[in-house]
Every structure is written in structure tokens, then in C-alpha cells.
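To make this tangible, we now present a fold written out as C-alpha cells:
***
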Amino acid sequence: MNQNLIQSIKDHAVPLKTVNDYDVLLTEVTEQTLVLLGESSHGTSEYYKERTKISKKLITEKGFTFLAVEGDWPACHKVNRYIKGYDKESTNARDVLKSFNRWPTWMWANEEMVELIEWLKQYNLTQPAEMKVGFYGIDIYSLWESMDEIISYLEKANSPLIEAAKQAFSCFEPFNRKPEKYGISASFYSEGCHDEVIKLLSEISLTKTQIKDKEENSLSLEINTLITANAENYYRTMVIDDNQSWNIRDQHMVQVINKIREFQGANAKGIVWEHNTHVGDARATDMLSEGIVNVGQLLREQKGNEKVLIVGFGTHRGTVTAAEQWGVDTKSMITPPAQEGSWEDAMHKAGPFDKILLFNQGNRALFNQTIGHRAIGVVYNPQYEQYGNYVPSVMSERYDAFIYINNTKALQPLEFEEVFL
């Protein structure tokens, strides 16, 4: 291990003991209108809790107006309706979070999210309509759910486009809501629905101003239509080109973030919760050589580095909620001690305690070597992690700050029946 790196961490990192220790991060938020908060797994309790602390401070002290997460728009929209008071029937966050019923449900249907959602609802009760904080999903996977939502909105609005929408979406019926079946058919047999979707997207875009904007219906219609077009492209591409499908997904997420900002207007300021692999600038990793882009890179390129603050997260050891294979039951797994010579190993050797490290003009050069940085997905096999779970990264270019939690615990999923797709 490079002793100079360990000493540099000791010199520049700040211990994290109370929520007020995050003030060193908030002092960095000046011109930024987007703060991206990462995670090195989708199943670590502390990442959700610490991002909640930071998000509350950004909302109350810096005027941030929305939270965008790596989740499906339709389920997140139900949360948004709950916290903004549009939903007059739901009585608690736990029930609303059960809208996330498609695997991997635990990413958002978890105990750690309950407190944040209830806090957002209570906070919004004190705010005028134009200042209520929104909660939105920016991912691409909800193809069929988004088509359902479009039909529902058009029917409620008595839109003349309802028959055209039903006709366009009937193209997807033979695939029984199975994305892999659609992808294979569209890619190898040219039996896709691309033309139908693009035509409908154009028609809805031309007439969206006629949709009443009460309770954000026009925004939801626009995003669900965008999801339908981009998800069709994603699933069609996924079976033949993993890298290109990744790019389609991250480009979509940036599109949705920009649509939310446009909808909210000049005062829009967003907090984004996603995995480190999405928020940490891809140009500072081996993703660059693979031709892969991500949300952090694209937003920095679009807005400028001074408008975007990126925060990475990591841990040395503990437990994590994940699954051994895609679509199977989740369980709590051991997160083994970080690999010797990795970034997390260096953070641990600089002191086995929680800390935050800010990268700035004065110290970026101290952290510009390439080093392995752990990444855990929804599918995880701890015994094999040294073979593929460490991403070569230049940390001071990938992030503007890094939050290290020495020991972490597994996320607590809500208990309810989930749908495996």
C-alpha cells in the first residue's frame, strides 16, 4: 500500500461523528444545482441513512427542490403524490413504498426509506405549492408500467389520442410483459415496435400542452412516454450490445433529470441518488476505454463541473442485502474486508472510523493515481468479488467528495410479496 496515499487521507479527511460534520460538504455547495449522492451497493443501510441526512440539509439549508432516484417513474410517482398531498387515500409511507413490487424491490421498499418519505411529507406541509419537494424515478425499466400509466392518463383526460395509444401498445402484447422476449424478437427477427412508439411519442409531444397540469399530470405523461420510447430501444439493444444499452440507460436518466428541471423552472435544484457506477464520472475509470458513459460524466459535460457536485460512498466491511442470482430471494450477506491495496483499504488504514474527504484544487493531485474501488450490485457473490467488483478509478477526478463508512449493515427490506420479472 502507498504510504503517501494513506498519509494524504489522514491529512485531508474529516471524521464523521454527527450530522453537523456534513457542514464541510454543504460549504462546497455554492453554484451547484445538482448534487449526486452515490453508493457502492444497493443494499447498505448506512448509505441510505447518510444520504438522508445530507438530503435534508440540502433541502432545508440550500433550497433543493427535488430528489431523483435510480427507480421506476410510476412507483416513484406514487411516492411523489403522497408527499405532495395529491394522494388523499394513502395514510403512511410504508404502504406507499409497496408500490415498488418488482424485483429488486428492496432498493426503495425498505425500512430506511420510510423515515425519509414521512419527513418529506411533513416538510411539504409547511411549504407553498411551488416549493414542495418532489420525489422522482429516473430509470428506464418500467416499459409496461409506463404504457399502463399513459393509457390511464389519456382515458381520464378524454384525449383523442387514446385509440392511437392502444393501437401502438398492442404491438407489445405478444411478449407477455417479458423484456427479454421482446429484446430477442426485436433484435434478431425485426419484430419490434419501434415505429409505433416513435409515432405515438411525436403525437403526444405535439398535444401535451392540452393535458391539464393539475398534480403534475403533464410531466408524468411526458416522462412515461419518454420511458416507453427509450426502454423499447434499451431492450432491443440489450441482447446484442451491453455497452450501448448501458449508454442508452444513463442517457435516459439524464434526459429525465433535465425534464424535471425544466418542469420546475429556474429555481430547480436536484439531489440524485444512484450507484457510484452511475454518478462517479466514467472518464475517471476504465469505462472510458470501453466507450461507456454515465450520468455523472454527462451532467458535468452538459452543465459544467461548477454546477454539479458528485459524492461517492464506500465501506471497508460489514453486511449487505443482495441476491446470489437475478430474480431470486434476497438475503443478508457478509461484505468481506476490502481488498488489499484498494481505495477502501487505504481509507481504513488511514483510520478505522467514518470520514469524509473533499477533493479540491489544493489536494486533487494527491489522489490522482488509479486504484481499485469496490462496487457491489443487486447480484453479489462475496467469495468472488476480487475478480470483478473493483473498478480502477482516479478518485479525485471521479468524485468531488467521498464518504467512507468503516463498518456497515445490510439494508432492511419491507416485508411483502414481490413480483419476479
